[in-house]
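BUG: 3D viewer hangs when loading the predicted structure for this chain

Environment: internal workstation, default settings.
Expected: structure renders.
Actual: progress bar stalls at 90%.

Input used:
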Amino acid sequence: MKEILVILGGGRPKGNTRQLVDSFAQGAADAGHHVEVISLNRMEVKGCIGCNACRYGKPCVQKDDFNEIIPKIKTADLMVFASPLLFWTISSKLKAFIERFYCIAEEDSNPLLGRYEKYPVKDAALLMTSADNLFWTYEQAVSYYKFAVINYIGFHGKGMLLAGGCGDTNGKPQIDKTNHLKEAYEFGKTIYEE
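Structure tokens produced before the viewer hung:
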């Protein structure tokens, strides 16, 4: 059994992204894993301000809900980042959350190229939804995720589900008219299959 922490970076409470997350979580739970979903719509997580207080042994100066999530991050085996596509990338809420990993990094005496610190070793997955489904729809979002989460932080990629073509942007979810919910369920159910 794995500890899976899903960070839902925005979207409507019953929208496409939430439905995708719920299907993934159900599949993972049915496979015997413990899943917790945290919605950033219900929490305040401010972006990093680069003050470097955390580099001098002090806790993060930002007084918000991220500090409550840190123990959950540390015990998670898998972190799933979920977001609607907003202006061709992940939501600002999810980006702010990822930025704050800086305050849980540790000093690294032998850092990898381009990195100055080391982060907890975790698996990671990406879930996204969008109205568009063009060949370039997710290019910016995937690029950021791969660069920041996989290459820089150093999490191990367990896959992505990019659920395009979920309707228009008028606020009416249409993911149920696609195969994405079934795909998300199977992704969650099989993410740790050998």
